[in-house]
Amino acid sequence: MSGMIQLLTSPTPHLVETSGIPSPEEEERIREAIRVAEDELEKVRRKGVWYAVELMSQSGSADAERAQYLLDDRTQIFDDENENAESDISFLYMLGETVPGMFIAFIDQHKGLVSPIRRFPPELLVEIFSWVVQESPFPTRHSAAYPYELAFCNSFRALAFTHVCSYWRQVALSIPQLWTSIPFLNKIYLNESVWLPHTSLVEGDPADAASLEPLCSVLAHANRWSTAMIHVCPTIYESLPTLDFSLLHALNLRVVLPTGPDRIREGDYRGTNTVFQTTPMLKTLILDSKPMLPELDTLLYPLTTFVGLPVTVAYLIGCPELVKCEFRGPAGMLSTADPPHPFMHAGIRSFRLVNTNCKLPLGEEYTTTFFRWIKMPKLEVLEIEGPGTIEATTVVRELWGMTLAKPSLLRSFTFHVRDVKRIELLRLLEAMPLLEVLDIWDMPSASLKRLVLRASHASGGAEPPPPLVPCLHSLIIRDPSGEQSTPVDRDITIFLTYRRARGLARYQNIIEGWQEVEPGNHTKGSECTRLLGWANYLVKNFLGFEYQFWNPNCSMKKFEYTGKGRRFPEDSWDVEKIDKFLSVVEGHEMKDGRLLEMTRLNRIMAAIRDQRKGFPLGDEIFSFRARAGELVKKWAPLVEESAKGRRWQISEDGRTLRLGEDLKPRKIEVEVSGDGRL
Q1: 604, 543 in Cβ contact below 8 A?
Q2: Which pTM value belongs to this model?
Q3: For residue range 290-341, what is the model confidence (pLDDT) as tens digits?
Q4: Is residue 463's pLDDT more than 90?
Q5: What is the residue-wise DSSP string for 222-244?
Q6: Distance of CA 661 to CAs 350, 414, 469, 654, Å?
Q7: Could you tell me which of 538, 618, 533, 615 has the C-alpha nearest to residue 574?
Q8: Which residues touch 447 (CB under 8 Å, ≥6 apart)?
Q9: How far apart are CA 183 and CA 150, in angstroms?
Q10: From the CB of residue 553, how many other CB atoms can be counted at a distance below 10 Å?
Q11: Considering 68, 93, 116, which residue would you say is the last residue of a domain?
Q12: Which residues of 402-430 are buried (b: 16+ CB within 10 A; e: fewer)?
């Protein structure tokens, strides 16, 4: 038997704790040392603590003498007259743990020396590094959606690769592609990306003098900018020189107006600059500034995608190549210089209006919108999106009278407006024979039959009228209205808000709260609100924790039928309170199986039924799982009955109701290629 010091001595000490690659001869010696160490480890585990003591006695360490002393007279350890018996036994236990651990550490360390990762081909490392640090797509909607964290955190990973080992550092520094997303204040990225096009983020504040030098460094490489996000104040914007952006194809620009007691009023800023006059490759412009900066109108001619405020509607005349357009802000907002006359844009295929939740002061209403100025005969996707605060009459009149061709080419229509009249909706949809997807906020209930019924649903043998939109296969209704809408129909479109819970996605996300489309429509204690409260309570108390992290110190401070309860720590889980709650549920007569699905109460009860034995606490006394199973059986006929002939479905996020033959979510998008063609 060799001494332990010899067994645990590395045959290649110069490679330990380095990223060096052993030679073939060194690798052979390392593998032999690993084999011997594994054999000794197996002997220690098989023969027990006395073999570990024997190894330690030959190690020459500080504990070797004591180990030899114990070996010479093993019986004295258990002698009643041995005053050091307790200390000796502790020493034996210590050796029984320490010696195997020393062998394991030696084996793991030396297996790392011969790991294939040390000979990982640099070509593969290049591919892996490039995949990890790949750039995120440039945002094509608005600046708030810019993937700042993803795009620029990914770029910092390139720097992290250089801190692993000398080999990785050498490979990372040899790949210019890793350094093309330029995070602010990182000159190393500018140097290492050499000649390749890159993405830049520029944010400037005149109060921060330290930001000017790195800003100049980034601007010095403007001829390599491929995509850029520029958020600066007017002072910095005015100071920017005219630069050559010969490769720039996507720009997100925001001139941030001052805020404070003496701030410039919205619309007052008219500073000019020619910094972006040379942008021959620009295809996407996201302009998060108000007003439209006059000097930027020359940028619009080659654009295929534009995002901005409605005040820029007049500038669309100069965008013949435009395919996708998005306006953010009230539909009734126009600049002081409206278009001189209505105009037609034959290229736009996708138009989106978002953030329509702005209201005019003093209770005023919009009497007109920018839709009266622009005709888009080739439009395929139209989205008027956001809380339904715009009154429908004006929008319908101007869409039907000006914007849309008759018949139109629309395939997807999102219409979030309020007070839609039946005759207005029918008139609008009659002009959309190719429509496939309809997402509407306020749907008159009387219009549903014309949208979803087929001949097979005729009653009394009468032939129903043909469907209003024959190609429709996906319908989302957020608020049915009209005299024929029942309370259940209104309840089903309730908006839920969830809190994500790890490991519970198969049941549901925990319901934090909810609100109706128009708050106040539902009275406290209504059937729908009551069941939502029950679902909320059950998830928080039965399914709110994964098994291994189950914490019994949780209950509800209060419980109302509105579901506005909250957890707080207590000394123990209140099983009696849960028992009383389940008794209330068991005694309640369910009236509509649709509500059991919409609130997911049936699904939650099934999840409680399927919990493992002994969980939750108190189940052996109050039979929570068995009672949940009985409720599922009791409700099964209701759920089955409600599903017969039903052609609606709650969406995956639990927020909207879908009607139609094809219940799968579908959204039509218009894609633009690099050259601007569809």
Answers
A1: yes
A2: 0.52
A3: 545 556 667 777 888 888 877 667 777 778 889 998 887 665 554 445 566 7
A4: no
A5: GGGEEEEEEEE-HHHHHHPPP-B
A6: 25, 19, 13, 19
A7: 618
A8: 422, 425, 426, 468
A9: 12
A10: 11
A11: 116
A12: bbbeeebbbbbbbbbbbebeeebbeebbe
Query: Is pLDDT larger for residue 478 or for residue 275?
Result: 275
Average pLDDT value for the chain: 68
Are 317 and 341 contacting, i.e. CB atoms less than 8 angstroms apart?
A: no
| Distance from C-alpha of 52 to C-alpha of 73, rounded to nearest angstrom | 16
- The kind and range of the H/E element at 645 are none
Neighbouring CB atoms inside 10 A of 170's CB total: 12
The answer on 398 and 383 residing in a single domain is yes
pLDDT (0 to 100) of residue 273: 65
pLDDT grade, residue 376 (50/70/90)? very high
Same domain, 128 and 108: no
The domain that holds 470 is classified in CATH as 3.80.10
3-class DSSP string for 311-332: HHHHHHHHCCCCCEEEEECCCC
pLDDT in tens, 40-68: 888 888 877 777 777 777 666 666 767 77
Between 12 and 491, where is the model more confident? 12
The boundaries of the domain holding residue 669 are 300-491+656-678
* Contact of 390 with 422, CB cutoff 8 Å: no
- Residue 312 identity: T
**126 CB-near residues (< 8 Å, 6+ apart):** 171, 174, 175
Q: What is the pLDDT of residues 143-194, one digit of tens each?
A: 433 333 334 445 556 667 777 777 777 888 787 777 665 554 456 666 666 6
Indicate whether 171 and 213 sit together in one domain: yes
CB 204 within 8 A of CB 184: no
Residues 550 and 576 in one domain: yes
- Angle between the N-to-C axes of helices 85-113 and 49-57, in degrees from 0 to 180, rounded to the nearest 10: 80
What's the number of CA atoms in the CB half-sphere (13 Å) around residue 116?
3
Q: Which residues pair with 650 in a beta bridge?
A: 657
CB atoms within 10 A of CB 131: 8
Q: Which helix (H) or strand (E) holds 164?
A: none
What is the rounded CA–CA span in Å between residue 251 and residue 57? 73
Residue type, 52: A
**Token pair listed for 355:** 């953030």
Are both 373 and 446 inside the same structural domain? Answer: yes
Q: How confident is the model at residue 561 (pLDDT cuts 50, 70, 90)?
A: very low
Same structural domain for residues 348 and 216?
Answer: no
**DSSP conformation class of 198:** E
Which amino acid appears at position 32 of this protein? E
If asked whether residues 629 and 661 sit together in one domain, one would say no
In angstroms, what CA-CA distances link 313 with 257, 292, 327, 341, 374?
21, 10, 9, 12, 8
* pLDDT attached to residue 447: 67
> How many Å apart are CA 539 and CA 145, to the nearest integer?
32
DSSP 77-102: GG-TT-TTHHHHHHHHHHHHHHHHHH
Which spans in 588-676 are helix H? 593-598, 601-609, 619-622, 624-643
* Domain shared by 407 and 507, yes or no: no
Where among 116, 136, 164 does a domain terminate? 116
pLDDT tens track for 479-493: 656 555 554 444 444
* DSSP letters spanning 524-539: TT-HHHHHHHHHHHHH
Distance CA 601, CA 177 (A): 52
Please tell me the total count of domains within the chain: 4
